[in-house]
């Protein structure tokens, strides 16, 4: 029997405002993670390991940062003569041209191209979560269910549930209720932004909804489309049994890094059967100088550590001079921490320089320093500071 024809659409066009300074000059899916990776590496690696070769990436904000990383798709075996990786920027020239105003709106704008592809299943995923998932297995379950949409679900903390689409499930996998970011969630079962759609009925439904909502617009998938599919009885759940972490906020981003510096991290990023691939990734070996201290940390290639590093994630090209101390922090590529400086519970963006004897962060809220900022010698940035302060 022939394999189903699968198209994956990666929605990588969101502004990512909740990541604050980290997305001021880059797309959210291009934000670094765990030293050498970018967030978009996770869905792309899932595609490769699921043996799915047709992947479209919808981009919008700071597209250059994504283009530079995606290149021709080679790290994920998507550099094909036919098919492979295709990027979808905003465009003009038809009634569907223009700026995307939400995930459902983005899907509607690409409807003609999706119909022309004639896929048996359309997999729509976001690019701001860390997880591993065989998309092909979800597709096979979807095609055998008679559903119009299969939503991959996971359990979340009760106090975190209002951030997600929340579902109620009966009879094993039948979704009987769906609420998008509800104030009072009925359950803690959340969609994890992986959806498998039957293309033709879904796109037909989008067309009908677009006519009904008028100037309000289709907005996000959870605004009109998923509630309508649920109300008509065409939605099914597919529980994700493994690790999944949304890293779309600074606290969540920091927490996820804390999980990956544990003695047994939640995912093996180098697992031979399901590796996570990225562009580049080749650096000289990390140099840990005599007298330095490194404990419970991830140290990437191309780094130089002369001071103390505890409970932190150190990205490629970072230099921590002798006498400097970094604790419970995430340092992105090219950061330099000068002698005598301390960095505590902080996230430092690309090429930040912390001057000699400066102090960044402390116990309490996470401190965030934006790309290429310089913290002057002897400066003290309190816990929870944003530097430079965001424009109002």
TrEMBL record:
GO terms for biological process: glycogen biosynthetic process. The keyword Nucleotidyltransferase applies. CDD domains: ADP_Glucose_PP, LbH_G1P_AT_C. Pfam families: Hexapep_GlmU (PF24894), NTP_transferase (PF00483). GO terms for molecular function: glucose-1-phosphate adenylyltransferase activity. The keyword Transferase applies. Its EC number is 2.7.7.27. Keywords: Glycogen biosynthesis, Nucleotidyltransferase, Transferase. Residues 293-365 form the Glucose-1-phosphate adenylyltransferase/Bifunctional protein GlmU-like C-terminal hexapeptide domain. Residues 9-259 form the Nucleotidyl transferase domain. Gene3D superfamilies: Hexapeptide repeat proteins (2.160.10.10), Spore Coat Polysaccharide Biosynthesis Protein SpsA, Chain A (3.90.550.10). Belongs to the bacterial/plant glucose-1-phosphate adenylyltransferase family. This is Glucose-1-phosphate adenylyltransferase. It comes from Blastococcus saxobsidens (strain DD2).
């Amino acid at each position: 029997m022939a394999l189903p024809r699968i198209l994956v659409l990666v929605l990588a066009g969101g502004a990512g405002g909740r990541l604050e300074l980290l997305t001021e000059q880059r797309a959210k899916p291009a934000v670094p993670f765990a030293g050498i990776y970018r967030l978009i590496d996770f869905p792309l690696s899932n595609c490769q390991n699921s043996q799915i070769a047709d992947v479209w990436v919808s981009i919008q904000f700071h597209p250059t940062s994504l283009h530079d990383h995606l290149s021709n798709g080679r790290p994920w075996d998507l550099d094909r003569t036919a098919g492979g990786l295709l990027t979808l920027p905003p465009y003009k020239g038809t009634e569907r041209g223009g700026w995307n105003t939400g995930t459902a709106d983005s899907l509607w704008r690409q409807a003609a191209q999706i119909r022309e592809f004639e896929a048996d299943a359309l997999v729509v995923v976001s690019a701001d979560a860390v997880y591993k998932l065989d998309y092909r297995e979800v597709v096979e379950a979807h095609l055998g269910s008679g559903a119009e949409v299969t939503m991959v679900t996971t359990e979340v903390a009760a106090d975190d549930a209002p951030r997600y689409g929340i579902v109620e499930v009966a009879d094993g996998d039948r979704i009987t209720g769906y609420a998008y970011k509800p104030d009072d969630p009925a359950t803690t079962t959340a969609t994890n932004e992986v959806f498998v759609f039957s293309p033709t009925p879904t796109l037909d439904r989008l067309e009908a909804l677009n006519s009904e909502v008028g100037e309000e617009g289709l907005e996000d998938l959870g605004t009109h489309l998923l509630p309508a599919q649920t109300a008509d009885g065409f939605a099914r759940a597919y529980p994700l049994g493994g690790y999944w972490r949304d890293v779309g906020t600074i606290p969540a981003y920091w927490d996820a890094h804390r999980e990956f510096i544990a003695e047994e991290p939640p995912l093996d990023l180098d697992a031979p059967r399901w590796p996570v691939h990225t562009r580049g990734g080749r650096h000289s070996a990390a140099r840990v100088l005599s007298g330095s201290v490194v404990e419970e940390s991830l140290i990437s290639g191309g780094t130089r550590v002369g001071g103390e590093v505890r409970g932190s994630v150190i990205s490629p090209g970072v230099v921590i001079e002798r006498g400097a101390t970094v604790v419970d922090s995430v340092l992105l590529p090219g950061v330099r921490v000068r002698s005598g400086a301390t960095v505590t519970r902080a996230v430092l963006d690309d090429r930040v320089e912390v001057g000699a004897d400066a102090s960044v962060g402390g116990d309490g809220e996470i401190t965030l320093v934006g790309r290429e900022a310089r913290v002057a010698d002897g400066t003290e940035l309190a816990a929870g500071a944003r530097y430079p302060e965001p424009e109002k």
